[in-house]
Amino acid sequence: MASDKSGGASEAQGYPSTWLRGFLPAAVLAVVARGETYGYAIAQALEAAGLGHVKGGALYPVLATLEKDGLIEASWAAGDGGPGRKMLAITPDGLTRLLEHREQWAAFTGAVGGVLGPAAPARHDAAARP
After folding, report:
1. Which pLDDT score, from 0 to 100, does residue 82 have?
2. CA distances from 86 to 46, 54, 75, 101, 102 (A)
3. Selection from 94, 109, 121 nearest residue 26 by Cα
4. From the CB of residue 43, how many other CB atoms can be counted at a distance below 10 Å?
5. How far apart, in whole angstroms, are the C-alpha atoms of residue 78 and residue 84?
6. Helix 17-33 / helix 56-68 crossing angle, nearest 10 deg
7. Per-residue pLDDT tens for 76-96?
8. Residue in 70, 73, 63, 17 with CA at minimum distance from that of residue 40
9. pLDDT tops 70 at residue 114
10. Chain CA centroid to CA 38, Å
11. CA 61 to chain centroid
């Protein structure tokens, strides 16, 4: 795994960290939609999905923004022999936003696939220029 110079998501599977940061709010909503969870478990789920290690410096600001925007809600649960844990659940608005993200993602990946998809290699010699 390449090192991450930004302090955020690492470059797993060769994915640029800028891609992961842009996708992170949608990915977090998708994980929280599976059921009540907490920050560290979200990071583990994202890593298990192949997105690499998401550092707290990238994850926790996203969680704070999602909570501020009313897309997730927090409650406190007693810890297992330790401090309490901030549990997160998706709200109805969060579920709506997740569905919008899924539709947008399908359209976006289709458009990018059309641009990056298989094509004849471009010629870079002077004869190929008008």
Report:
1. 80
2. 18, 18, 6, 25, 26
3. 94
4. 21
5. 4
6. 50
7. 998 777 888 999 999 999 999
8. 63
9. yes
10. 15
11. 12
60 pLDDT above the threshold of 70: yes
Give the C-alpha distances (Å, rounded to integers) separating 90 from 8, 19, 30, 63: 23, 23, 9, 11
Q: How far apart are CA 111 and CA 114, in angstroms?
A: 5
Neighbouring C-beta atoms of residue 31, cutoff 10 Å: 19
pLDDT-derived band at 121, boundaries 50, 70, 90: low
Q: CA-CA distance, 43 to 99, in Å (whole number)?
A: 21
Residue 22 identity (one-letter amino acid):
G
The count of residues in the chain is 130
Rounded to two decimals, the pTM is 0.78
The pLDDT tens digits for 6-42 are: 444 444 456 788 888 889 999 999 999 999 999 999 9
Question: What single string gives the DSSP state of each residue in the chain?
Answer: -B--SSSSB-BGGG--HHHHHHHHHHHHHHHHHTSSB-HHHHHHHHIIIII-PBPHHHHHHHHHHHHHTTSEEEEEE--SSSS-EEEEEE-HHHHHHHHHHHHHHHHHHHHHHHHHSS-PPPP-SGGG--
